[in-house]
Amino acid sequence: MSSARDQILGDIRKSLRGGAALPAAAAAQLEARLKNHPAGLIPRRSGGRDRAGLLQLFEEQITMVSATVRRVRSLTDIPAAVAEYLSSQNLPAEATVATGTLLDGIDWKQHPMLRIRRGTPDPKDQVGVSAPFAAIAETGTLMLLSGPDSPSTLNFLPDTHIVVLPASRVVGPMEDAWQRLRHSRNNDVVAASMPRTVNFITGPSRTADIEQKIEMGAHGPRRQHILIVEDEQVA
Amino acid sequence: MSEALSKKPRVGLFVTCLVDLYRPSVGFAAVKLLEQAGCAVEVPTLQTCCGQPAFNSGDRADTKTIARNVIAVFEGYDFTVVPSGSCGGMIKEHYPELFADEPDWAQRAKRLAARTWELISFLHDVREIDSVAAQYDGVVTYHDSCSGLRELGVKHQPRDLLASVRGLKLQELPGAEVCCGFGGTFCVKYPEISDKMVQAKAEDILGTGAGTLLAGDLGCLLNMAGKLKRMRSEQGVAAVKVRHVAEVLAGMTGAPPIGEAGE
Amino acid sequence: MIPTSQAFKANAHEALRDAYLQKALENMRAGFPQKRLEAISRLPEFEDLRDQAKAIKDHVLENLDWYLERFEKNVTAAGGHVHWARTPAEARDIVMDICRRLGARTVTKGKSMIGEEIAINDHLEKNGIVPVETDLGEYIIQLRHEAPSHIIAPAIHLVKEQVEQTFREVHTDLDPRRVLEEPRSLVAEARQVLRDKFLAADVGITGANFLVAETGTSVIVTNEGNGDLTQLLPKAHIVLASLEKIVPTLEDASAIIRVLARSATGQDMSVYTTFSTGPKRPDDADGPREYHVVLLDNGRSALLGTDFQPMLRCIRCGACMNHCPVYGAVGGHAYGWVYPGPMGAVLTPSLIGIETAKHLPNASTFCGKCESVCPMRIPLPKMMRHYREREWQKKLSPPAARIGLGAWAFLARHPFLYHWAAGWIAATLGWLGRRHGSFHNLPLAGGWTATRDMPAPQGKTFQQMWSERRTRRAA
């Protein structure tokens, strides 16, 4: 008795080719297509911009989706910028900050009023701080990867999400972000080296499920604040 | 000068069932406009229906028989012109696909399709008419019939020609491109839903304040006229004169509007 | 979900008289089309992107077996499991086995049309497991024991007063004097209630907008973030997906994502687009310990190689129903099953049979708006017509229709008879209607004249008058 798998694949083959599997030559073409993973049409909006152009586009797009953005010159400016933002929103001066090279390189104690926890968030945490792998200027989107230093739940549980984004991590289209990811994993992403979770996040959480009226903070954060670090040395 | 304009083309007028049965004045307006545009118009007597009712009911066999008759009757003309987007679309878009598995008929259907045009787009795009010598005083609104719009690209042509009519002011209809709810057999099969759709359309028409409604398809026009007239008798809403756009463009508005009695 | 599609006319009748529903549909008609237009006006490449998306899906469908096997290989390599289900029953059993093994008591769910198709919630409940819908719209209708009425906005048929009433009835441990008038407070309350459920869940079930063969990845697209909390917090993440969700590469997914949100809600990107590959890695800070993908056939393989194959390109954006005047008049429940609107008119008979669903492909004027907005260029009216052809061949159409159309076709094939009959009808109706110019009542046209006048013909046919004119001119 054939398994469900065999039957389904058999039914597909029957419908497409009278029962035959894909001929070897055709299979080789599909193999090549996967290997080359060609990018398709990239909108002009996001192609061919220099660093300044990308940052401008990113800021325009992110503002359209109700996130806020501020540029700082270097990582040393981050603690003050975080404290200022929290104060402007009447939030207590505390945050849970992910770990990892970039965020570890910030001297959080600079701002003693700012109470910082590191690592995985507690469900009661109100503010999360993370660093995206990349940001996509075309749509104002952040690309955040899961990992030992970057709990994905930090992007969702706290009510306010603050993001430390080096300007050098901003790319034009999503395809360039995938390219960076592939490069970072020894030149090709295969299943075993893909992160468990890749979150593309475009603005704060929202819903329009009640009478088509948009309300923020449905389940994820209701606030997203992006601190762009302009220092070219910060990668 | 393009070949199409350099000689007097022989045009076969595809009358359509509704024009033939309901409102011949549309046919005569079409003839006048075509003759004014330098065409020699003939009306084959062996034509009946384009086959769309059978086609949309799933009766492919009868549709093909009817289509073969249309192809045979009209294939001798330089152009086949139709005062309807829906019948025009049937011949132009659906006849070739109907005979996809019969190469000879497919060939003949494609040839006919290539020479078949909805009336207003024929005048504007093929005969390059950009104005008419007609007069019509009043505010007019225009409904875009679905097949004409989406199958045949009829949108700006009637508007361009209406803009040349002296005394006429065009008030765009909000939701001009939304279906009026006629849909051929649909209004018979699902009358309540059809009524809801034509109700919304009528409210939009009345909202423009226009005294006249025009469109290029008699099915839509009968539907909208019927609804407007019922709303007038039941709710006392304003009267709206409903006509086929060809009547206004040809300056032939002597006949009573659709649904109205003569003097 | 037990279909009521055969009762479409009765369902539509109710829907047309439902004041709350009509108000909700008015909001929808005013909102979605405008938002889509604005979004695509900002993207000049939109038409080319539609063509590209169609090409990617057509390519996948032609090679679906190969891509499914590659997808399975990569899911397994990442530490996940792929399960194959021919039928809803097999899919339900697979889900139950996982839940039982893990001792699951509650399960959170992201929105999944496949979940509806296999009626997973009822099955979980029958087996003592509590399913909690977390998409706000799905949560609301779950509390009301209703089915979704739209594939991306499931509670679109409700007005806020109805939601308030439901929350008051169900959230009885909250202060009854609280103010709950505005959507803002309703959303805040749902967030609060559901946050606890997210944290307590043992298993999380989501759907998938895409399955990426290259990496063994499933993709979900949400605005709320519920799909993410559903998959990250519990012990296991189960993905329910039908076979045709496959795309070849990450870049292909990105290409189609560009047309998805714009077509659905008019957003350039939805807030959360999440790519999930396998269970958490050993060193990961968080994530599910198990990852399962349940691949459901339930009629998809049978559509391949037929006139209905293009339907498998559907990416569930909802643009067709947002723009459909019939859906806009009666809403989603009238269609009687999981998938409403134009896409439902084709998919429903494909999955549950034309006998049950015969009304759906008939309840269309073929205005063509759906096809004109479909990002995947699916020829929906053409496929609805194919189903009408099947019905005609199987003689499922009502006898009156067959007789009437048969008579019409007969006349159309016999021009002289046709012209004689047309002349007779024009003369008779023209004479009867000459006083008012229209009929208030017309036998055989009762459906029309119940609410509309029927204009009267002018009294002679064009052919008669043309022949008379020629005779006069010859004389």
Summarize the topology.
The complex is a heterotrimer of chains A (235), B (263) and C (475).
Chain A: H1 4-17, H2 24-36, H3 51-64, E1 68-72, H4 78-88, E2 94-97, H5 101-104, E3 115-118, E4 127-130, E5 134-136, E6 141-145, E7 160-166, E8 170-171, H6 174-184, E9 197-201, E10 206-207, E11 215-216, E12 223-229
Parallel strand pairs in A: 1-12, 2-3, 2-4, 4-7, 5-8, 7-12
Antiparallel strand pairs in A: 5-6, 6-9, 10-11
Chain B: H1 3-6, E1 10-13, H2 17-22, H3 24-36, E2 40-42, H4 52-56, H5 60-74, E3 79-82, H6 85-98, H7 103-114, E4 116-118, H8 119-126, E5 135-142, H9 146-152, H10 156-162, E6 166-170, H11 186-189, H12 191-208, E7 212-215, H13 218-235, E8 241-244, H14 245-249
Parallel strand pairs in B: 1-2, 1-3, 3-4, 5-6, 5-7, 7-8
Helix pairs in contact in B: 6-7, 6-9, 8-10, 12-13
Chain C: H1 8-16, H2 19-41, H3 46-62, H4 64-77, E1 81-85, H5 88-101, E2 106-109, H6 113-117, H7 120-126, E3 130-133, H8 136-143, H9 160-170, H10 183-200, E4 203-206, E5 210-212, E6 217-222, H11 226-232, E7 236-242, E8 246-247, H12 250-264, E9 272-276, E10 290-296, H13 300-303, H14 319-323, H15 325-330, H16 341-352, H17 354-357, H18 369-373, H19 380-393, H20 399-413, H21 415-432, E11 438-439, H22 446-449, E12 454-455, H23 462-474
Summarize the structure in words.
The complex is a heterotrimer of chains A (235), B (263) and C (475). In chain A, 29% of the residues lie in helices and 21% in strands. Chain A is built from six helices and twelve strands. In chain A, strands 1-12-7-4-2-3 form a six-stranded parallel β-sheet, sandwiched between helices. In chain A, strands 8-5-6-9 form a four-stranded mixed β-sheet. The longest helix of chain A is centred in the N-terminal third of the chain and has 14 residues, at 4-17. Chain B has 263 residues and is α/β, with parallel strands linked by helices. Chain B has two domains: 3-125, Rossmann fold, CATH 3.40.50; 131-249, 3-Layer(aba) Sandwich (Rossmann fold), CATH 3.40.50. Chain B is 52% helix and 13% strand. A four-stranded parallel β-sheet of chain B has the order 2-1-3-4, with helices on both faces. Chain B has a four-stranded parallel β-sheet with strand order 6-5-7-8. In chain B, helix 6 runs antiparallel to helix 7 and helix 12 (191-208) packs across helix 13. Among the domains of chain C are: 43-302, no CATH class; 411-474, no CATH class. In chain C, helix 3 (46-62) crosses helix 12 and helix 16 (341-352) packs parallel to helix 19 (380-393). Chain C is elongated, with a radius of gyration of 26 Å. The interface between A and C is large, with 81 and 105 residues. Strand 9 of chain A pairs antiparallel with strand 9 (272-276) of chain C.
